Amino acid sequence: MHRTVLSRTSPRALALAAGLVTQLYVAGAHAAAPASEALVNTKCASCHTAKGDGRWDRISESRRTPEGWDMTVARMGFAHGVKMTHDERSAIVKYLSDAYGLSPDESAAHRYIVDRTPSVVEHPENKLIGDTCARCHSYGRIAVQRRTESDWRKLVHFHVGQFPAIEIQAGGRDRNWFDIAVGDASVELGKVYGFESDSWNKWKAQQPADASGNWRLVGHKPGAGAYEGTATVQRTGNDAYSVSMVLRYENGTSENLKGSAIVYSGHEWRATMKSGEREINQVMTLADGGRALSGRWFESGYDAIGGVLRAVRADGAQPAVLSVQPAALKAGTRRRLVINGVGLDGDVSLGSGVKVLSVAERSLDRVVVEVESAKDAVSGPREVKVGDARSGEALKVYQRIDYVKITPDHPMARVGGNGGSMNKVPAQLEALAYTVGPDGKKGTADDLLLGAMPAAWSFDNLNKVAAEMKDARFAGRIDQNGLFMTNDAGPNPQRKYRTNNAGELKVTAAVKDGTRTVKATAPLIVTVQRFNDPPIR
Amino acid sequence: MKIKTTAAALAASFGVTLFGALPATALAAKDYLVTAARPNLVFVMDAKERKVVKTHTIPNTSMGNSPITLVHSRDGKTAYVIHNRWETVSGIDLDSGKEVFRAELSGGDIRGKSPFPMDLSPDGKELAVYVNPTQLLPGEYKVLDPYIAIYRTDAGTDAEPARKLKVPRRVSTLAWSAKGDTLYAFSWDMLKLDPQTGAVKGKHPWRSWKNGEQGEPDTLAIWPQWEQTNVFATPYYVAYANKPEGDPSALRAGIWTLDLEKDTVHFKEFENAGVVLFSSVVNPVRRDETYTVYTQLTKVNTKTGRMDRVDLDHTYYNVNVSSDGKELYIGGTQGDIAVYDSATLKRIGNIRTPGGGDQVLTSLRIFQR
What we know:
The complex is a heterodimer of chains A (537) and B (369).
Chain A: H1 5-8, H2 11-17, H3 36-44, E1 50-52, E2 55-56, E3 62-64, H4 66-78, H5 86-99, H6 104-108, H7 111-114, H8 127-133, H9 139-143, E4 145-147, H10 149-162, H11 177-192, H12 198-205, E5 213-221, E6 225-237, E7 240-249, E8 254-264, E9 268-275, E10 278-287, E11 292-299, E12 302-313, E13 320-325, E14 328-330, E15 334-342, E16 348-349, E17 354-363, E18 366-373, E19 380-382, E20 385-386, E21 389-390, E22 395-398, E23 403-407, E24 412-414, E25 427-428, E26 430-435, E27 448-453, E28 456-461, H13 464-469, H14 471-474, E29 476-478, E30 483-486, E31 503-513, E32 516-527
Parallel strand pairs in A: 14-22, 24-32
Antiparallel strand pairs in A: 1-2, 3-4, 5-6, 5-12, 6-7, 7-8, 8-9, 9-10, 10-11, 11-12, 13-15, 15-18, 16-20, 17-18, 19-22, 20-21, 23-26, 25-30, 26-27, 28-31, 29-30, 31-32
Chain B: H1 7-14, E1 31-37, E2 41-46, E3 51-57, E4 70-72, E5 78-83, E6 88-93, E7 99-104, E8 110-113, E9 118-120, E10 126-137, E11 140-143, E12 147-152, E13 163-166, E14 173-176, E15 183-186, E16 190-193, E17 200-204, E18 231-239, E19 251-259, E20 264-272, E21 279-282, E22 289-293, E23 296-301, E24 307-311, E25 318-321, E26 327-331, E27 336-341, E28 347-352, E29 364-368
Antiparallel strand pairs in B: 1-2, 1-29, 2-3, 4-5, 5-6, 6-7, 8-10, 9-10, 10-11, 10-12, 12-13, 14-15, 15-16, 16-17, 18-19, 19-20, 21-22, 22-23, 23-24, 25-26, 26-27, 27-28
């Protein structure tokens, strides 16, 4: 029999067709922005009764991140037949995010779920909410929403209507899930993540900041190391900008990014940039009245690959040291240090036990110095000063690396590719070096994180079952930058049970410290595809 | 009561030629398997011949592509299957492939979904379907109380429930007693309902099952496959609060059975939980033997707790057993139904289903003709 292609596609394919991918559709969002309230009336009010004054049934009973609004608006398209162009959808999301967003404080504790930080192990702050909601998706997803109690309850009704297995699946069937969810859990959600908030009211009353200008930036990309660079931001419309960035890595490589950004809710910076053939998404926060920008960025389709970024105004900013490369200096060594910042005018001071031998290069945003650390320099952080510019504790001096930790603590990778709909999800690991501090004991408050160090990476089976299944042979491979890439998805005829290339591994990082080698291990779980991978998980 | 008759006699009584391939002379009844598969297929297989003898298409499945529960009439004439994202039940004539029954669970502003529970009365006259209705209001959904819709199977392709029975939430299985006087609804406990009124006549405890230090046992019972014995069987896991964390015996696995003829319950723990157990079936000849599948095929003597186990070549979800108790049929994935010897657990054959679609969470049923 003949049917349309659409009728046979999966909800995921429909979601993709609707553009519900891992990042916001940024381009074009500014174009229709002024007409957005009218657009909400046109597109939404046939079901969500307009109450006037920018309020609609349901819509104005919740507040969310831009991604949260985009997921809802996209669902109205693929599940309820609302016809929207990309520009219309973007304009609605922009309008709703501005009118019903979250203040910086409200999402600060759960940025990881918005910026797609990989392999975060959550510790739900509220047990009832965690038990009711976070057995199926992240706790962070709830924590970056605000709703009235009544709207939380309506969300529960939606869940049962939309996901009919919810009451019989693992994690739901051990309780009277629906009764709990519409009862105590909705009450609790209304209290803990309620709609009304002083923080948002105050935030919304502020004048929106203008991000245009020249910026100085520093950051870190796991696997590639520290970088520094600059950004130029030009205003192209209401909260809309064109952006160009240069990132220069400590390994000698560099990249130029060009793209556009939109600021939602007065602070939620979302940029889509091109770096060569790769597309980069930035999920950042504009802070300090438009004088600071920070957050995470990741590659489209591979959000485990990315980095963190911090930027300050280069024009007219207070002098500041933003970073030192390398950030850790072993006692009794001589080497070249790069100090990155703004307004770097004056003498360089690196704290006790570190002597500046010469200045090799200098400008207002970068100073390169030859330094020597004393053999008996005490392990600890040092404030770096260049004239009036201060660093906080940008430089760490250490006698020896006492221990190493692999990060993320509980890395997870996913098989993918092989003609399937989902990309492989790699795990980008880092070996973080520590000294134990003055008390000589590991794991105490005075331990000092020195930063990520080069390591020799290897892995083996995690346990007996993994050894029997030969997981280490099938699950993937790791390069010497700590990037673990999985093998193909799908049944593997070479494996017992013809199972896929999932596995339980133990990964080892061996870090050289002079003639010593310091090792760390971590469990690395290689699992199956996440077929439902919304912007907020 | 199970109907066992000859193919020729059945052919005579129904006035049709069965499957076209059967010899004209009267033979002992044969086992046929019936199952569904993505996106819209129903297969009938000759178990001993290891081949698909009929492939039918469920009409108008445009809303979804994964049929779930399949229930057959005991005469092997009709199979009822839930599809269309769980919002439609179709009855397919297994000889002609014609849709002879169709019930839409949704209508107007109500979205009705049946998350697996469905069974046919022993006389084949009534079909019980558990329905979770949701009212789709402008701007919001409203969850309504679930009900069991009882349809007459002769209600045609525009079937409406003959009656609706009140029932608690979270039902995963409906099972009609052999005599037809009880409709079991497996919610947090196994409820015994009057199939006429829905009145709760009693229950077999599950959540309220007290057994020493054990916690609440957990099972996912969504595979109806008790037609050979009239014994419902499901694997379960149960935690023991009095065991220290990390003690392998703190989580145990067992088989729970309910005799649908005698209304008696039996349970047997047989191992510390270590492997995934999906669905179980009871041997009609050696009735203490149950078989459970996932990536292993596990045989458990529910009297002694003795267990035998073999690894499988891939994952399987459902299991059924031949009328003589000698062969096991396991299916669910990769378009592949494997045949195992129930005594030795040795693989003795397989049946490939055409079309490339997996069975996934549908049922694997067996009947005789």
